[in-house]
Amino acid sequence: MRKLYLCVLILLFSSNESFVFAQNGWQLSGQGSGGIGVISPQNNFGNTFYELEYKFKLGYLGQFNFGYGVTDQIAVIGIVGYQNIQQDYKGNFSPGLGAPPQSHIKEVGLSHLNMGVLVKYVTSFQDAYVYGTKAQLVVSGGLVINKLVQAKMTYIANGVQMPYPSKLIPYTDPEYPYSPQSDAKNLFSGWSGSFVLNIGGDIFITNKLAFSPSFQGQVSLTDVNHKDYRKHEGYKASRVFYGGLNLGLTYYFNRE
Questions:
Q1: Among 80, 71, 68, which Cα is nearest to 112's?
Q2: Main-chain dihedrals φ then ψ at residue 3, nearest 5 degrees
Q3: pTM for this structure?
Q4: What integer is the mean pLDDT of 19-33?
Q5: What is the mean pLDDT of the chain?
């Protein structure tokens, strides 16, 4: 019995060591995502009367991840990606003071190059080790730096596109601090930071290659508006919120 017990322990230990080795090492993945982005609270550039309603639009994200598994369950992942956020605002007003009723539409689009580091945790749905199972839970989170590469800002009042930002009727402040911008990038910060959280799984197609769906949440940690456009009274920092579905593939180089 003692010899049998010893043999079982040796087999379990050897088996576990192979499991650990199978998950250590390099991994590479590519992802595409579609979801809803929100820029809130909206910056109305001091035109406090015109607080428009939010109209949600689809955004998208493409991303490459390259990382290293330091243990069988934990990896450090570097990411590079491109993200587009679309946000529309709409509203109808009766300003008074002799001004006719007005219909306003504001359309905002931000495109960022994303670079960051995530910590990734995986665990099997079957046992304490991921080797030998066809599916595993994946949770990753970390910090991302966003570089603004393109921006758009369109403002339409009563069907007519207007320069923006500018004083809107019946706005009467003689000290309005802003001039219209032809390049919308001037209205937003060139760099911002975000926290990203992904919850999903790996479904193995082969021993090394997995289909990797996940849900992603993202929130800006810094104000996305340029510092020169935060001067008006009652200003509140705007942040980007994003939630979407990621679909991708992950290749584990050391998995047997």
A1: 80
A2: -65, -40
A3: 0.83
A4: 76
A5: 86
